[in-house]
Design a protein that fits this description.
This protein is an alpha+beta fold. The chain is built from 18 helices and 17 strands. A hairpin with a 5-residue loop joins strand 1 and strand 2. Helix 13 runs parallel beside helix 15 and helix 15 packs across helix 18. The radius of gyration is 34 Å and the shape is elongated.
Length: 461
Amino acid sequence: MALGLSPRCLGGEQQQVIFDDLSLPEFGVAEGEISTEYYYSPKRDIRWTMSNEYLRRYLWMRGTYGVRVFFYEALLPDRPDLRALMAGGAHTQLKPDDGWYELDIREHKGGLLIQLWATVAAVAPELCPEVRADGLIWPGITGPMTRARADALVEVIPVYLDDKFLERYEQNGLFDTTPAKIYGRWYCSPSYRGQWSFTDCVRVGRNLIKVPMRELYEPKPDREILHAYAHVQDPAQVAEFSQDEEHIVSKTERFVNQLLDLGDHLAFLSTTLEMPQAAAEIVGFSRAELQASGWLHYPELSRLGQVAPLAMTEQAFLSRCKSIHELWQRIPNGFLRKLIERAGHARSDVKDLGSVKLLQALSNIVERLNKEGEHIDAFAADTEPRDLVTRNGAFAPLFINNDLRIADAHDAGGVLRNLEALGFDAAALSQGYGRALDHVFDGVISTFFHLNTELTKLLNR
């Protein structure tokens, strides 16, 4: 506890106590088993381990050494060399001046019993050498940077990081990495339970993060600054990136905006058809909540907006395709079926249609009414059976994304065929699936944009 560690207990057959440093965080600093019974000897062997860094810090604080204790016992035959140590007596004890061991030899059961106790200094009270954030040489900045120098900076000196810097925090629920849009810019500033945080981390381009040097050195553990340093980009590298290219968070925002617009349109249409339903109930997102709290109460948006490197693996790509599909599939199929039934189609004709085909059928109905210049009151007055089966080219990305979400990660041929069907150059996959994700994501967004455009025409006529 002198180190400010927090204990936690694990139950079961192996009772354990684990100490964590929650200020960093650092887990499993010290851990070991406990014995619930003791009668002359422990019920079982007890083993404890501790981080070398923390052990040395504790010894340094106490001014003591860590020692290794040794005991040896053996009953040996009576021998002249051992008798010589006993100097003709029946029992002797030998102990050097520094007292690091004690040797006991005595007659026992017709032989000589030897017992040896020893204590050896194993860990000195010296702190482990630490790599500090002070003294780092940052690309494009003259001289070593220290906390004092950074704090004294008046001008804004930007530092560019590869957004893989965020992966360590995004993949651990202990950290908060919820993106926030402030004055038109997306900030992705990791923080840890109000104890420390990065600030002013702004996304620029597809895979870059810009952060002022002064903010980078704001109070936080040195290892977090060193983590950022490991992802710093040289100015020459930054010049090769387009800072206008859209990043994954912005794509997620565009996608959500299309879903919100679709919710509003379908809510208006359902009210007109006397089957009212709120927009938030239709698409599963509240525009008011998003405007008030951003993505804070929608962690699925933060997950979809996680780092998407160009070198993304196929497995990660397919997982992200699944996330895209699940986000819009909140729209109830039953609600879509009722809309299409109100357009005059028999329930038996629509009961087996899946979510993508239901949206396609709805779009076909609305597009036909727009071509004919009809008003919204004609929605339920003119039925065309082909609306349910006509392939709509605008919905190809949605069908392909649906195929990708269920694709076997090892079936590379199937994935390639789907991407090529969407017009993506499969040769680009040699560098990873990042561009493929962009292509699929943009295609899905364009599908919902198309549907919203057609609904707007009909509802505004």
